């Protein structure tokens, strides 16, 4: 990959990168398919029911495939009073950044696409663009519930992006780099979850909020807003919004693994198990925790959400940066 | 015809198209979306200049800023489309003067860009530019940086006070 990145540009390179990108997209789609199934199964288990168990054998292995097929065949409706160009553009605006973000994530030391110096900032910056798609979709639908959902998404993104960045700054301070490879390398002996526990907790809460998942799923609160910002969407445009959401779940779980759980580094004594397996294990644990949150927490009210973001997470993250800077100055 | 040139052409085209659309569209939300395309392609131009930190910060700041602007656009403007008469008023001389001014500005910018000379020291700026920006900001330009943060703080406090004043007139709940 390294020599490929430094080679002279040519059409062969374009073809190679296109192929690699398509392969990654297929991999992510496979994750999304089985991630959704896993979510429904785990939630079913936690709520004392079976979950999908009809399509594709006892474990419902083809349930999501059938759902996607149904979505593809569905009629694609665009409301008469909707703002047509923006209504069409919005799902694309929401999904494209979700996939762009994956480019900088180092899954293992060999399996990564772009090793850029500001990888961490790139992730946070580009993931913020999805909110524009969500607000656009909410506005273009010309529906009050959709608009409220979009507004909530914007408010939530603005207030939780700050604690997210602030909590990560502790890790950046200790590593001395924004490059995700350097951050993983710095965790060779001790993972940052042990040296930066406060940052980890703030990051996890802010991450769940950025993902718009329960307990922070106000933009798509079914019981208040019918379905949130995508009420008017159907068929494959709706699937694009869902896809963006689950690709972000993938990306955020991978980012948590990279930042706090040591990426592909093994637990001590167990170095004979290869790096990709370790990454997959840690990644699955993070995904499971996120599903667990969804099954167990009640939804917050809008004012509680703002209060938690600005009055709890923000000061805690600031204090964490201050303490980290002090410790680094005094003891390292 | 290198890859960089093609990328520049594509990004510049998107940036200019976004800008022109922003001026020509009638609905506020459409304008904001056009603006998004301009800002993102400008970030792409920064990447071409190897200023990756500036590019990423451009996206980070403007994605939030644009979202907020869109909310204001939605909340503070009327939604009934007013297709007002759009014929430009003003006589021949006014139009001619405007045209001359536009051309003069274009020529001035063109000449300015071609005469621009950054000297020799720019050659190594692209290596580790995040670190270099940090070093410069916190060693040579600390006081301007701090003053900027004080101004932002004043703006924040001012906004809170302005927003609070509205409340006093309303009955207390």
From TrEMBL, chain A:
Q: Which gene encodes it?
A: nuoH
Which subcellular locations apply to this protein?
Cell membrane; Membrane
Protein function: NDH-1 shuttles electrons from NADH, via FMN and iron-sulfur (Fe-S) centers, to quinones in the respiratory chain. The immediate electron acceptor for the enzyme in this species is believed to be ubiquinone. Couples the redox reaction to proton translocation (for every two electrons transferred, four hydrogen ions are translocated across the cytoplasmic membrane), and thus conserves the redox energy in a proton gradient. This subunit may bind ubiquinone.
In its UniProt record, a GO molecular function of this protein is: quinone binding
Kindly state the subunit structure of this protein. NDH-1 is composed of 14 different subunits. Subunits NuoA, H, J, K, L, M, N constitute the membrane sector of the complex.
Q: Name one GO biological process term.
A: aerobic respiration
- Which reaction does this enzyme catalyse, per its entry? a quinone + NADH + 5 H(+)(in) = a quinol + NAD(+) + 4 H(+)(out)
Protein family per UniProt: Belongs to the complex I subunit 1 family.
Keywords from UniProt, A to Z, are: Cell membrane, Membrane, NAD, Quinone, Translocase, Transmembrane, Transmembrane helix, Ubiquinone
Organism expressing this protein natively = Parageobacillus caldoxylosilyticus NBRC 107762
- The main enzyme category here is translocase
Protein EC: 7.1.1.-
Under the heading InterPro entries, the entry gives: NADH_UbQ_OxRdtase_su1/FPO, NADH_UbQ_OxRdtase_su1_CS
Gene Ontology CC annotations of this record: plasma membrane
Q: Primary place of residence?
A: membrane
Q: Which PANTHER family match?
A: NADH DEHYDROGENASE SUBUNIT 1, NADH-UBIQUINONE OXIDOREDUCTASE CHAIN 1
**Transmembrane ranges?**
14-37, 86-108, 120-140, 160-178, 190-208, 246-265, 277-296, 308-327
NCBIfam families, per database record: PRK06076.1-2
| Name this protein carries in UniProt | NADH-quinone oxidoreductase subunit H
Is NAD found in the keyword set?
yes
Topology relative to the membrane, per the entry?
Multi-pass membrane protein
From TrEMBL, chain B:
- What are the protein's UniProt keywords? Cell membrane, Membrane, NAD, Oxidoreductase, Quinone, Transmembrane, Transmembrane helix, Ubiquinone
Catalysed reactions, as listed in the record: a quinone + NADH + 5 H(+)(in) = a quinol + NAD(+) + 4 H(+)(out)
> A cellular component term (GO) from this record?
plasma membrane
Q: A GO molecular function for this record? A: NADH dehydrogenase (ubiquinone) activity
Report the EC number(s), separated by commas if there are several.
Answer: 7.1.1.-
The answer to keyword Transcription applying to this record is: no
Transmembrane parts of this sequence: 6-25, 32-49, 55-76, 96-116, 143-163
Q: What class of enzyme is it?
A: translocase
Against Pfam families, the record matches this protein to: Oxidored_q3 (PF00499)
Mode of membrane association: Multi-pass membrane protein
Tell me where in or outside the cell this protein is found: Cell membrane
Q: Does the keyword NAD apply?
A: yes
User: Main role?
Assistant: NDH-1 shuttles electrons from NADH, via FMN and iron-sulfur (Fe-S) centers, to quinones in the respiratory chain. Couples the redox reaction to proton translocation (for every two electrons transferred, four hydrogen ions are translocated across the cytoplasmic membrane), and thus conserves the redox energy in a proton gradient.
Family, per entry: Belongs to the complex I subunit 6 family.
Name this protein carries in UniProt: NADH-quinone oxidoreductase subunit J
Report the source organism. Saccharococcus caldoxylosilyticus
Q: What lineage is on file?
A: Bacteria, Bacillati, Bacillota, Bacilli, Bacillales
